[in-house]
Amino acid sequence: MAGVEVRLPAARERLAQGLPRGAGEGGRDLVAPGDTITTDPGYMRGHGTYMGNEKLVASVAGVVDRVNKLVCVKALKTRYNGEVGDIVVGRITEVQQKRWKVETNSRLDSVLLLSSMNLPGGELRRRSAEDELAMRDYLQEGDLISAEVQAVFSDGAVSLHTRSLKYGKLAQGVLVQVSPSLVKRQKTHFHDLPCGASVILGNNGFIWIYPTPGQKDEEAGGFVTNLEPVPLPDREVISRLRNCILALVAQKLMLYDTSIVYCYEASLSHQIKDLLKAEVMEEVVLQTRQRLLELEG
Amino acid sequence: MASVVLSEAEKVYIMHGVQEDLRVDGRGCEDYRCIEVETDVVSNTSGSARVKLGHTDILVGVKAEMGTPKLDRPNEGYLEFFVDCSANATPEFEGRGGEELGTEIANTLYRIFNNESSIDLKLLCINPRENCWVLYVDVLLLECGGNLFDAISVAVKAALFNTRIPKVRVLEEEGGREIELSDDPFDCIRLNVDNVPCIVTLSKIGYRHIVDATLQEEACSLASLLISVTSRGTLTCMKKVGRGSLDPESIFEMMETGKRVGKLLHSSLQTVLDEEEKLGSARKKVGFLG
């Protein structure tokens, strides 16, 4: 039962001309590179802006963010700029002496020090030379981890830690990569969704969808990966969630637990593979947006 | 080729999914991603097409130029293939990085077009032994998202369908022959693409095989089979890629799947090409800015 669908590309719909720019949602300003933000010399120049002809000009496309006298532009499409306390999902790219290099979608590779992770079994001691030799047994190239940002260096590189049982190596599941600016900052980024799967919404735009673990096995410290087959119903939920998240991203909707759950519920009337089609995505996201607006009241 | 690194657990997840006929994006084992085809996107070519298959993005231009026929085939024109791997697709292609892949793809294209029935090359002959049309088929890889070969073959077929070669007349004069180009720009030859084959790549993952693998799935597959199929389901050429081995029984299964999917691929593609043609100038061009 093969399925092949070929179609003509659909042109993106242009927004109505003459729509006043800067009167976006909630009074927030949208700017394009080169747009003048303000001519008032009293403002301070922040990220994503520069001074040109005594005017403050945007250097990236995004939303203007004012904090007192400081004006920044938050770009829609950007790499991840680390902040202490962020939760990230990353992939190990290199094993070095006493540390791992982790790809987290930031400009520079992040590091995870051997000393800033829990040893398997939860032992607390100084790391010895043997531990250094066994580093590849803990995490090897290609492995995915969830971690927290411990420090940000002056060049913007990020140092991670996994000193909690929440963090550590990720087992079976699906990774979705989105723009970091679409992940909403929240109290918690680990969600067990009511639909039967869990997600980790990394602040760096890496989203991990995985089957909700049955019981939290604490003694392993998150290093033993379960390679048992995931049951089909769980797989269906995970695939649907993946496609829903991609649909939300295609329509530039913020990602957080509520929006994902609403989108999931709106998508239930469609087949999972149909969610890859642009028009179905649009319809599902429209319903989601409607419900989110109703929720806000 | 652009490739991704996956952890063991991710690979296991993908493999079990294929076993259960539910892939990561919800497709079954024999489902293609949605293919978007647009022809006539580059104005200074004789024919062009752009194909998007998931994240794979291919642009093909066909240019007809006057040349001399090859010595062993004096009454036929010929096709030349060139594949350019743009560094836009992946930084690995920078400099000469994409050359190897480009040559591999070009050689595959030569192989699948290396038979009499795929395209009527006699039509391209102008003057036996002296002049013929040479079709330069240039493929540009703009983005790699897995399943390059299938996307490229679809794009080549669409571009050949779109190709219009100006009609010329040979005037016999004393002292030699002269070639005269028709005054009417709409007076041109079209190629018959009914027998142009398309490639269907079948990747073996675990005990099953899938069509249209994404980059992640390609990373899980040790061996895949390229099959070129015509619209009637005739298999014209076959090639195994990857370092793994395939056992003969599964090759036969893969061939059957390939033929079945290939036929569907051809019929869907032809429907869209005809539909686009029917729209004519009323069609909104999308191109690269849409």
Report on the structure:
The complex is a heterodimer of chains A (297) and B (290). Chain A has helices at 129-133, 135-138, 232-250, 257-267, 278-296; strands at residues 6-7, 30-31, 36-38, 44-45, 49-52, 55-58, 62-67, 70-75, 87-96, 99-103, 110-117, 144-152, 158-162, 168-169, 174-177, 190-192, 197-201, 206-211. Chain A is an alpha+beta fold and 297 residues long. Chain A has a domain at 31-75: OB fold (Dihydrolipoamide Acetyltransferase, E2P), CATH 2.40.50.100. In chain A, strand 9 and strand 10 (99-103) form a beta hairpin. In chain A, helix 3 crosses helix 5 and helix 4 packs across helix 5 (278-296). The N and C termini of chain A lie far apart (46 Å). Chain B has a single domain (8-279), classed as Ribosomal Protein S5, domain 2, CATH 3.30.230. Chain B contains five helices and 14 strands. Chain B has helices at 8-19, 99-113, 148-162, 215-220, 248-279; strands spanning 35-39, 47-53, 56-67, 78-85, 125-127, 131-143, 164-166, 168-173, 176-181, 188-190, 198-205, 208-211, 223-229, 235-241. In chain B, strands 1, 2, 3, 4, 5 and 6 form a six-stranded mixed sheet that branches. In chain B, strands 12-11-13-14 form a four-stranded antiparallel sheet, with helices on both faces. Strand 1 (6-7) of chain A pairs parallel with strand 1 of chain B.
